[in-house]
Amino acid sequence: MKTDLKAAPKVPARKKDAAAIPAAWDYAAAPESKDIVKIADHYGLFIGGKFVEPLSKQRYTTIDPATEEPLSEIAQAGKADVAKAVRSARDAYTSRWSKLRPSERAKYLYRIARILQERSREFAVLESRNGGKPIRESRDVDLPLAAAHFFYYAGWADKLEYAFPNRTPKPIGVAGQIIPWNFPLLMLAWKIAPALAAGNTVVLKPAETTPLTALLFCDVLRQAELPPGVVNIITGDGRTGAELVSSPDVNKIAFTGSTEVGKAIQRAVAGTGKRLTLELGGKAANIVFDDAPLDQAVEGIVNGIYFNQGHVCCAGSRLFVQESIYDAIISKLKRRMRTLRVGDPLDKNTDVGAINSKAQLEKIAGLVQSGIDEGAEIYQPPCKLPERGYWFVPTVFTNVAQSYRIAQEEIFGPVLSVLTFRTPDEAVEKANNTPYGLSAGVWTEKGSRILSMAQRLKAGVVWANTYNRFDPASPFGGYKESGFGREGGLHGLEPYLAFDEG
Ligand code: NAI
Ligand code: MG
Fold first, then answer.
1. Whose C-alpha lies nearest to ligand 1, atom 30?
2. Which helix (H) or strand (E) holds 498?
3. How far is the CA of 363 from the centre of ligand 2 (A)?
4. To the nearest 10°, the Cα dihedral for 222, 226, 231, 237?
5. Does the Cβ of 419 fall within 6 Å of ligand 1?
6. Residue 283 near residue 457 (C-beta atoms within 8 A)
7. Does ligand 1 come within 6 angstroms of the Cβ of 363?
8. 256 in Cβ contact with 279 (< 8 Å)
9. Which residues sit opposite 252 in a β-bridge?
């Protein structure tokens, strides 16, 4: 067939990127029903397989950060409560769990995984109500991954001698685990699944603002008929966490949270012989080269920083753009940001939900103000925020110098700082110019460049042409002030095992 080039239809000029997004694209609200999950007026502490009243007699109120509505009264475990939970874990360890055949341990883990899948909608709604994250994320990310972690480690429980050949792996005893509020149930799964698979028992403390899915998980343990005391869940704030860390009969501490508290825990544990893993903050570089597919990269940038309101330790919070594509990326990014839907976490259309707490909102607002004061240029898309609750508009800063606080400190909110580079060497140098080293992203068409960047970036995880991807088989953890020890994969079992070497 002959083609007449001259007759080819003229491609219409592209719309200016600054064009407003048509107002006709308004969505009708599609809220998920709250009725699927029942929240009790108050909860006790889950010790020895049942809920008990806190000896401290203290409680505090947990709320829905999207409405500030009180949800339940939560026990604040004191010293005697922590001691009781640790005793219960020790008894369960010596009398039963460490003696159980590994294939039997695996059965419990499989059961827990299956029940989580069956009850996933209930958990997703509760996670979104107590934490503020969009239902789309709790339903499609947190819940499937939490179940996947239990499935994955169930598979290893009776194969430890193949996982660590000639090293005779043995459990270490009672693990004290302290988790944050950004992925409450998922972090619980990351902690509990490998600990149980390795034959240990657990005392876990969820974060003070998000205890509800951990408390609902106690019902899953009951359904799975897990022997009493193998998992104990104690609620409370940092004081409860500190008591658990200093408890003399705990063999291992696993912590995810702020670098500041991580350092305090490391000091408290030093010289006690307790094992320790720390998963702390981050300030990841997401690096876009000029040969990257730009639209795909913009999706990755948005996912990297606005996923879970930016309450993500591995969030791509520093964007490095190669100079030649800077204008194109920024205008595409701003255009994409204008389509983000901020609001009711239970609405299935919502992209960005509520900030987890008032304290976190104040921290974000303070750092954003510092960016403005130091001279960066701020962009926020037009956005109507709900009247009650804690909200922050997705924000991008351009004209950022490396020394600015917004380029150095973890903001843990929906705030992106954009910097530029000319050469791969410059990108590496700038990306590594941070006290953290948890994750990084690289966007380029060149496979060789991906490999060389991945080798030179000081980060525990490097994603290429994607971002925020997780798999239970893949180890996760940091360098430098992002902590030490790995979670996930075979590496994630090691911190829960002792070895008879030789
Ligand atoms: P945090 O580190 O104080 O809280 C995390 C967990 O540690 C909670 O369960 C808390 O009760 C517990 N905790 C607090 N003080 C403790 C202590 N002295 N001993 C033992 N446990 C203790 O984090 P926070 O205050 O909620 O958030 C502050 C900042 O930390 C955030 O803005 C963010 O930058 C960072 N962060 C990082 C996380 C990550 O996943 N890497 C998770 C949460 C916060
Ligand atoms: Mg704190």
1. 258
2. strand 497-499
3. 11
4. -10
5. no
6. no
7. yes
8. yes
9. 175, 275
Q: Which atom of ligand 1 lies nearest, measured to the CA of 279? A: 41
Active-site annotation, residues: 279, 313
Instruction: Give the end-to-end CA distance of the chain in Å, rounded to a whole number.
Output: 75
Residues 6+ apart with CB under 8 A from 438: 280, 281, 282, 284, 313, 314, 459, 460, 461, 477, 478, 479, 482, 483
> Is 257 a pocket residue for ligand 1 (Cβ < 6 Å)?
yes
Ligand 1 in reach of 250 Cβ (< 6 A): no
Q: Where are the beta strands (DSSP E) in 229-382?
A: 231-233, 252-256, 275-279, 285-288, 318-322, 377-379
Q: Is 184 in the pocket of ligand 1 (CB under 6 A)?
A: no
Q: Whose CA is nearest to atom 16 of ligand 1?
A: 238
Per the listing, tokens 């709320």 go with: 63
Measured from the Cα of 244, ligand 1's closest atom is 20
Ligand 1 contact via 258 beta carbon (within 6 Å): yes
User: Residue 232: is it exposed, middle or buried by C-beta count within 10 angstroms (0-12/13-18/19+)?
Assistant: buried
Q: Please give the number of the atom of ligand 1 that sits closest to the Cα of 265.
A: 19
The residue whose CA is least distant from atom 28 of ligand 1 is: 258
User: What's the 255 CA to ligand 1 centre distance in angstroms?
Assistant: 9
Query: CA dihedral defined by 64, 67, 72, 75, rounded to 10 degrees?
Result: 50
Decide: helix, strand or coil at residue 125.
helix
Comparing CA positions, the residue from 212, 230, 112, 131 lying closest to residue 171 is 230
| Residue 441, strand partner residues | 286, 463
Which ligand 1 atom sits nearest the alpha carbon of residue 245? 20
CB of 180 shorter than 6 A to ligand 1: yes
pLDDT per position in the chain (502 positions), as tens?
444 444 555 655 555 555 555 555 678 899 999 999 999 999 999 999 999 999 999 999 999 999 999 999 999 999 999 999 999 999 999 999 999 999 999 999 999 999 999 999 999 999 999 999 999 999 999 999 999 999 999 999 999 999 999 999 999 999 999 999 999 999 999 999 999 999 999 999 999 999 999 999 999 999 999 999 999 999 999 999 999 999 999 999 999 999 999 999 999 999 999 999 999 999 999 999 999 999 999 999 999 999 999 999 999 999 999 999 999 999 999 999 999 999 999 999 999 999 999 999 999 999 999 999 999 999 999 999 999 999 999 999 999 999 999 999 999 999 999 999 999 999 999 999 999 999 999 999 999 999 999 999 999 999 999 999 999 999 999 999 999 999 999 999 999 999 986 5
